Amino acid sequence: MRAMSTSLPQLPSITLHDLQGFITASGLPKFRAKQIIQWRNKGVLNPDNMGNIPKNIRELVNDKLCCQPISLTDKQCSEDGTRKYLFTLKSGKSIETVLIPEQERGTVCLSSQVGCVLDCPFCHTGTQKFEANLTAGEIIAQVLAVKEDLRQNPMQEGLHNHVTHLVYMGMGEPMANEAGVHQSLAMLMSEEGLHLSRRRITVSTSGLTPQIKHLGEEYPVNLAVSLHSAINAERDILVPINIKYPLEVLRDCLNAYPLAHQRHITLEYLLLDDINDRDEDIQALLNFINPERERINLIRFNPYPNSPYSGTPTERMNSFAKALISKGIRATVRRSRGQDIMAACGQLKSSKAIIS
Ligand code: SAH
Ligand code: SF4
To answer: Hey, what's the torsion of the CAs at 144, 148, 150, 154, to 10 degrees?
Structure first.
């Protein structure tokens, strides 16, 4: 009898070495493993679509591996080219992934968990109860599915048609799923995998400092930290993990994070009307930031049904940015993408109700 597919090794995350093991153990030629990995890296996960692989090997792969740990259930396209994908896991749970195309790059925003345990009060994912950590295979499969979609349905004129950058900014807290995220990074960065440079990958975290340290030691990719306030009492409410790892602890952790040449840590700062956009908030931020190593990305609040906050008006956002820039801080305002399909930052929730 065939084993439960969820307990099988997953094709998206398997190493060449392990795949060779399966193939040679069945008395089949080793070079087939490399061919299968080449298909996998292109985004082809169904062995039946691997043209140069003989039927007996396709059957073996189908039998011994979980080839497609996630399946595409729904897709929405925004006017600006952004695509939002709803995937169903083998467990029946669902996650969302977003492709953000620009002229020169294609960025995939990956989910790392189903729901999130951290409960930031402004975040739609945070309103969903935590259900599961994604496996490395489920994380990588999101990238591969987008690659496949771009091959089947090329991007409109003027927008990049390839996946060039990855951001772990979808559903969930990547640093609360170290095993899945680390293993996915290993494959995404390895030569036999997608071979993406650490400079093209960003992990966003609400600030789990021990895990940020591990990330820097193991996979020193770009780091983005959801700061949202540089005042402890305020951040305790907005980003509750601050109660466990307050600003002083975060400060030391960020100072120690290894940076690639000419790279900065991004401090994400969501502006909420009359909550964290006051003059004293600017002052606290100026006191907190290490301008040599860090820059600020101001985020407009993206509303969702029944969201409890309102965003800072544009005029105040601009004056907030100007106040930082005038002190020599690198500050930008993030352009919101895919808002018409609820694909923007903090809007992902994966409930069918918001998809249809
Ligand atoms: N858990 C990680 C990554 C996922 S959230 C983190 O918190 O960093 C990705 C980004 O979206 C974070 O900066 C988060 O604070 C922000 N975000 C959450 N809800 C939002 C909303 N409603 N509007 C705008 N940004 C939001
Ligand atoms: Fe979780 Fe990030 Fe949302 Fe906070 S902002 S609830 S950490 S996904």
So the answer is: 170
Q: What is the pTM of this model?
A: 0.95
35 and 172 fall within a common domain? no
The set of protein residues with a Cβ atom below 6 angstroms from ligand 1 is 122-123, 169, 173, 204-206, 226, 268, 270, 299, 301-302, 345-346
State yes or no: pLDDT of 4 exceeds 70: no
Q: Which residue has the tokens 């298909």?
A: 39
Query: The domain that contains 82 carries what CATH number?
Result: 3.20.20.70
Range of the domain at 92: 70-341
Based on DSSP, count helices (H) and strands (E) in the chain, helices before strands. 11, 12
Contact 349, 124 (CB under 8 A): yes
Across the range 39-68, mean pLDDT stands at 96
Rg (CA), the chain: 21
Q: What is the mean pLDDT of residues 125-130?
A: 84
* 111 phi, psi to nearest 5 deg: -90, 145
